[in-house]
Amino acid sequence: MKVTRRQFLKISGVTAATFAVVDLGFGLKATASEVKELRIKNVTPTPTICPYCASGCGLLVYAERDASGKFVKLLSVEGDPDNPMNRGGACAKGAAIFNLREIYDDQTGEQIPNPKRATKPLYREPKSEKWVEKDWDWMLDRIGERVKESRDRGMVHKEKIDDGSEIIVNRCENIAAMGGSGMDNEECYLETKLMRALGLVFLETQARI
Amino acid sequence: MAKLIKLIDTSRCTACRGCQVACKNWNRNPAGKIERFKGNYQTRKDTNAVTYTIVKMDEYVDPVNGLQWLFRKHQCMHCEDPACMDVCPRQAYSKTDWGATIHDPDRCIGCQYCTYACPWHVPKYFKKEDIVTKCTLCADRVQAGLDKGSFKDYPLEGWPEGGTDGFPASGTPRELATYVPACVKTCPAGALAFGDRDKLMARAEARVAKLVEEGYRDANIYGRSEMGGLSVVYILSFKPEVYGLPADPKVPGQIAAWKNIIQPYFGWLIPLALGASALSFVTTRLLKKAEEISPEEGGNE
Fold first, then answer.
1. What is the pLDDT along chain A (209 residues), one digit of tens a residue?
2. A98 contacts in chain B (CB < 8 Å)
3. Is there a contact between B52 and B78 (Cβ–Cβ < 8 Å)?
4. Co-location of A59 and A107 in the same domain
5. Are A99 and B31 contacting, i.e. CB atoms less than 8 angstroms apart?
6. What is the CATH number of the domain that holds A104?
7. Measured between CA atoms, how close is A31 to chain B, in angstroms?
8. What part of B 119-138 touches A (C-beta under 8 Å)?
9. Which residue in A188, A189, A170, A171 sits closest to A179, CA to CA?
10. What does pTM read for this prediction?
11. A80 and A139 within one domain
């Protein structure tokens, strides 16, 4: 295509004018700062206690509710400033409580339920490598059976004392009970009652809450 | 309005990394892959597209105080005169009136000029979305508090031992704590504070004086005047270089030249060229047309 001098001038003029208008007339200058809205603005938080260590820090769970008032999605989990224990603080573990329930997907970045969270009881047979999903009834029966088995095997009915006489002790020495920091006072009481009834002597707890 | 700053007292930091997790929680970032152990307990070498802040750990042998294990929370410094904002060809960066440097991902084209211009190389390229990302200073939280008029310096002064009785009028600690950056709220060691620049600067000076008294002779405040004054101010026990911070952060020369000389006048080049064309048209065509005999269209030289 042959471009004459006049055509060339026309084209370059139009191009220059277009650029001038685009560049100067409608500048791309940011008009306002792009600040997002606070996503927990009108959300009433639910206070809870951190389940991890012995400090028992207070946490606030901000969650979204559906129309019927049911919690559907976590918005944020933060330290509770009203709690005298931590005054709003949360360490790396406590601040990650969010991930117990939901995570942001590594690939898509979407908020999804944590796929690693166990929602059903898992059972591994002795010497097996696999975890099998079982229902609660089966699981509790199995725990009962095993507790009975172990207890029968390890029960100490009588014990000799220094003067050679035998006394009744009814002691179960091959089971130990371990509490967790997430257990409150009342739960610890019930657990102790049960374990003492079974004859356990090795009771441990981490109760600080 | 008054400038707000985040004050980071590195001498109090215990490197619990609560700030890192709280940052991810608030900014909705995935956990990301764990890097291989490289002889350092640091979570990763540097911040990345989904990790806006990390606690950096440095080992340093001080001639006076012996071996030091130094912790420093690293993130965007929110300069008063940010290089990223100057070089961005799409004006994706803006400053809030209280001091945060905000990046708008919708405008960003992922050219990464900001990454190279930033003296700390803070903006990080996010390959999946072809944009850069960086710390926001939780502008959404702070702005909500300022808009409501109930923003208060954090940690709150005179925290009531018994609960919220001391804060009946101006909001409860629960409410006030949602108006500060997530990292500041979560810090269990009390190393982070957020609030009025002048007040926190006074506090920083007192702390530095204390550190000097305790034998840290090089203790200093970082961020008072660097890059026009930073909105993230450090209290350092040693010289900034020890922490891997440039002592005198500067925008590279060619970027300064580009933004101060070329860019402001670049827009004029087009009308100037247009004017020159028009002038040339007048001188070479119209003035000579009178002498033209040939009816043919086109140039004649």
1. 566 777 777 767 666 665 555 444 444 444 444 688 888 888 888 888 888 877 888 899 999 988 898 888 999 999 988 888 888 899 999 999 999 999 998 888 889 999 988 889 999 998 999 999 999 999 999 999 999 999 999 899 999 999 989 999 999 999 999 887 777 788 889 999 999 999 999 998 876 65
2. 25
3. no
4. yes
5. yes
6. 2.20.25.90
7. 9
8. 128
9. A188
10. 0.77
11. no
